[in-house]
Design a protein that fits this description.
By secondary structure, the chain is mainly alpha-helical. It is built from 18 helices and 8 strands.
């Protein structure tokens, strides 16, 4: 076991057993014992990437000892690989700039770099502020890391999940192509459509959401690194920001670049509010899809019963054989959570003051949580519900044949009023539309059969 003894600026002695953090981190642990929400490791890893790139740039400029820079780089890479996750214990609910997490990363990288060097840097120590945080401020490193982490998560997790979900819906539209069913508006019987057409609406919702999210990602590529405290770039040198962003591009493979107006990117997080708004819209769409599928699968005998959900687990602790729409419920619940989290991001974004938005941890935590919930929810629903979804053709046919709204096909031939009389007579006398048309003397049986064909009614005159 190794022990590290440190005296902070107030003269208070700290003894750390196998921990790489220092006084700043320990002080935060003692002052912010709030909840159980730990700062997401995605932000920590993105900060470590920024630190690594800044050290490299400072070293090439001659502002940082090359040997120090090398060990900082190696320590930062260990953080990015997840080898030091246990050394980042701070709560989300801390200072609004994220300074304490920035210092936590500085301290861990500095102390790990000292360990790794094994005295190879001579008498010179590695300082968390003077070396690891050189040419930086929490005010530019944290928002840069926020954007990097959220951009990478969106590209690596959410968009692939959306693509697979979209593909599954497209396959369902093909699978259900020949199935004609009753349409419903206001939850009441309406004119027919195909099950494929119904699912094509779901498919288009996902396509539109994916395009919407992709169109907003470019703003996340603009990093305020190099702006330091307020955007002026104090304590940096010309081209520092561009050189750091160039390294970040090489390391990630994504086109991050220096923000032209760093005052704006430090003082506001409008691009994250926009991203969160798009995630909310996706949640709205998924809620509609999940609830429609749940409604169409209701029953199986006493509801609509037109879809058959996979029976993944027993649905009731008291009613044997019951199958509940559990995946629909889980998806719709997480979507409500995302919708609520968007309000948190909006309020956090609106509450920034003057040269700094001091709601960074709140904004990042909620954006990342929404991304994670939606990515996992899309994958789970696709695997456990959507892919195994079946059409109950017998029930669909029965409902279609019982629909009074097939009478709408007669409007161009006998007029709305006579068609309405047929529907009312059929309903009141519990007879078919054909029988009602014959009894009223409006149409012969042959004429009715020629005019009222569901397959002809679903062929929309759309370009």
């Amino acid at each position: 076991m190794s022990y590290r003894i440190e005296t902070d600026s107030l003269g208070k002695v700290k003894i750390h057993k196998d921990k790489l953090w220092g006084a700043q981190t320990q002080r935060s642990l003692e002052n912010f014992k709030i909840g159980q929400d730990i700062m997401p490791i995605e932000l920590v890893k993105a900060l470590a990437l920024v630190k690594e790139c800044c050290a490299t740039v400072n070293s090439k400029k001659g502002l940082l000892n090359k040997r120090k820079a090398q060990w900082i780089k190696i320590a930062g890479q260990e953080v990015q690989k997840g080898l030091l996750d246990d050394h980042f214990p701070l709560s989300v609910w801390q200072t609004g700039s994220g300074t304490q997490t920035n210092m936590n990363v500085n301290e861990v990288i500095a102390n790990r770099a000292i360990q790794l060097s094994k005295g190879k840097i001579g008498d010179k120590s590695i300082h968390p502020n003077d070396d690891v945080n050189k040419s930086q401020s929490s005010n530019d490193t944290v928002p840069s890391a926020m954007r990097i982490a959220l951009y990478l998560f969106t590209q690596q997790k959410l968009l692939p999940a959306l693509s697979l979900f979209e593909k599954s819906l497209k396959l369902k539209t093909k699978e259900f192509h020949s199935i004609i069913k009753t349409g419903r508006t206001h939850l009441m019987d309406a004119v027919p459509l195909s099950l494929s057409q119904e699912f094509s609406a779901f498919h288009q919702q996902i396509v539109s959401n994916k395009k919407r999210i992709e169109s907003q990602l470019d703003d996340l590529l603009l990093l305020p690194i190099g702006g330091t405290a307020v955007g002026t770039g104090l304590n940096t040198f010309p081209q520092f920001s561009e050189k750091v962003c160039e390294l970040i591009r090489k390391k990630t493979g994504w086109p991050f670049k220096s923000a032209q107006n760093k005052f704006s990117e430090i003082s506001n997080h409008d691009c994250l509010a926009e991203l969160s708004g798009s995630l909310k819209t996706l949640a709205v769409s998924l809620t509609k899809i999940a609830n429609d599928i749940r409604l169409l699968a209701s029953g199986p005998r006493c509801g609509l019963g037109e879809l058959i959900l996979p029976a993944n687990e027993p649905g009731s602790s008291i009613m044997p054989g019951k199958v509940n729409p559990t995946q629909c419920e889980a998806l719709s619940m997480l979507c409500i959570q995302v919708i609520g989290q968007d309000l948190n991001v909006s309020l956090g974004g609106a509450s920034g003051q003057l040269q700094l938005n001091a709601y960074k941890p709140l904004i990042f935590f909620n954006c990342l949580r929404s991304l994670r919930l939606l990515s996992d929810g899309l994958n789970n629903f696709r695997e456990k519900a959507l892919n195994g979804l079946k059409a109950n053709k017998e029930k669909i046919k029965q409902n279609l044949e019982n629909s009074l709204m097939l009478v709408t096909a007669l409007n161009p031939h006998i007029g709305y009023d006579k068609a309405s009389q047929i529907a009312k007579s059929a309903y009141q006398n519990n007879i078919t539309l054909k029988e009602a048309a014959k009894q009223l003397g409006f149409l012969t049986e042959k004429e009715f059969e020629q005019l009222v064909q569901a397959k002809n009614m679903i062929k929309a005159n759309l370009k």
